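U., I forgot to send this yesterday:
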Amino acid sequence: MIQVFCLVVTFTSAINLVLSEEPTMFRKNSNSTKELEAIKVAKIRLDNEIQTAINNHPGIKLLESIQQDFISNFHPVLRDLELLFDGYKTCTFLVDLTYEDYLQKVTEREDKAQLDQFQKMINKWEGKFLVNYMIQSNIMFARKKMDELLDEKGILHSIINEAIAYGNVDKNGAAWISAKNQAHEFSYNMLKHTPKKPCLVVLNEFKTDLKKFD
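Result:
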């Protein structure tokens, strides 16, 4: 009787660990959401810093040109990243519906070995969906580039200071062009190459793999 009780407790704990408060197979969504929010905050901060420089030095038209460069080249990065993340979240919602259905089937069988096997497969597929949308790598790259722009010794602050002091950006012109090109290429590649497969294609592959638990 004690052995049966211990088995039930162990199995119930395993179920609770899998289910948590809200069943989802995407454990890393919260981190991506926080990182994306940090990029938004950084963008707003940079917008404000550029506008402040313009307000404090109204006679320097070059600052307005820098502002337009920032809007034209760096705002789309956040916009495209948000679109990609929205598509990813929509896909994960559809995937979670299937996940919850199979999780219920597996847990009702009260077979801990099968539950462990199921969770291993889910972890594998979580990684596949992340790779398909390149969510983490894209967000990490964008966060890194935004942090570089926030750096007071970085290229954006350098050209702002140079414009204020000398009225030109000859010293850092090439570096600024390079930064803008990187932003443009990042958005282009993100739009062209992600997701690698349409959501429904990967979802059907996921469902096929889950049939072993029917």
